[in-house]
Amino acid sequence: MIDLHTHTTASDGTDEPFEMLENARKAGLTMVAMTDHDTTEGWREVRSKRDQIPAGLTIIPGAEVSTRTQLGMSVHIVGLLFDAENIQLAKLLADTRDDRIPRMEKMVEKLQVAGYQVTMEDVEEVKPVGATLGRPHLADALIKNGIVGSRDEAFAELLHNNSEFYVSHWAPSPVEAIKAIAAAGGVSILAHPFAEKRGAVLSFGEVTDLAAAGLNGIERNKRDQDEAAHSKIDQLSSEHNLIKVGSSDYHGSARANQLGEEQTPLDLWENLASKASGDEVFTR
């Protein structure tokens, strides 16, 4: 059982890195990718303490890279097996993380002007140390202050992309991210490409352009994609040799997604991994 998309407290998940791995073991996974937003700190910690990795579990190093189109649409690219020491890619991830701070300050200010009692100190208090800052942490601060009851409520009412309180942050273009991942020896996967409930999605032609830029794979089986989305993905995969993967996008208790609820067959994983040269999977 292989799950290629998960999050920990290194970004906006609720499981500590080793807690996520133990939950992965309990779910019956044999391989799991650690793909926190714009950071490699979660799996770096795990690699430095290999004796704590659950027996029988293989870790795939990676990250979910935040990108933005020219029109401002948020697009996520999962990068796997890249060299985390690659200067170009490391700078791209660092620049994206750094710009999240002034973005969060602006969002908090907008909420305060509207009368919501929340501060940057509140956000920092609920954010795990070293985690990539994101809207889920603002949601947690709003929960702690009794303004909303859950992350889902926070996003539905206040933090969604079309909200008056939303502020974008700097991010590379999808093509820039795909090329940076490739230059670092990694492989790239387009995350939840047609999950319309999450917001605006790329057009068929835009995904075709990403394939031409070197995109390797595309997430097909996801709880937030319907049969119409599957049909588009099947056609794109056939026309552009994109490897179709299944993955959970697990965030711990923050979302309903469960580890291993969608999986990638071993032969497809081996095909994907054969295209990488930057880093390797690891175990104990």
Describe the structure.
With 284 residues, the chain is of the alpha/beta class. It has a domain at 100-159: DNA polymerase, domain 1 (Orthogonal Bundle). 39% of the residues lie in helices and 13% in strands. A seven-stranded mixed beta sheet has the order 1-2-3-4-5-6-7. Helix 4 (120-126) crosses helix 5 and helix 5 crosses helix 6 (151-159). The longest helix has 27 residues, at 87-113. The model has no long low-confidence stretch (mean pLDDT 95).
Give me the secondary-structure category. Answer: alpha/beta
Portion in beta strands: 5-15%
Reported for the largest beta sheet, the result is: 7 strands, mixed
The low-confidence runs, each spanning 5 or more residues with pLDDT under 50, are none
Question: What is the averaged pLDDT score?
Answer: 95
Q: Count up the helices.
A: 10
The CATH topology annotation of the domain at 100-159 reads as: DNA polymerase, domain 1
Number of DSSP strand runs: 7
In which order are the strands of the major sheet placed?
Answer: 1-2-3-4-5-6-7
CATH class type of the domain at 100-159: Mainly Alpha
CA(first)-CA(last) distance: 18 Å
Amount of helix: 25-40%
Short description:
It is built from 10 helices and 7 strands. The protein is an alpha/beta fold and 284 residues long.
Characteristic key phrases:
seven-stranded mixed β-sheet, about 280 residues, globular, about 15% strand, DNA polymerase, domain 1, alpha/beta, about 40% helix
Question: What layout of secondary structure does this protein have?
Answer:
Layout: E1 2-3, H1 17-26, E2 31-34, H2 41-48, E3 58-68, E4 74-80, H3 87-113, H4 120-126, H5 135-144, H6 151-159, H7 174-183, E5 187-190, H8 204-212, E6 217-221, H9 227-240, E7 243-246, H10 266-273
Parallel strand pairs: 1-2, 2-3, 5-6, 6-7
Antiparallel strand pairs: 3-4, 4-5
Helix pairs in contact: 4-5, 5-6
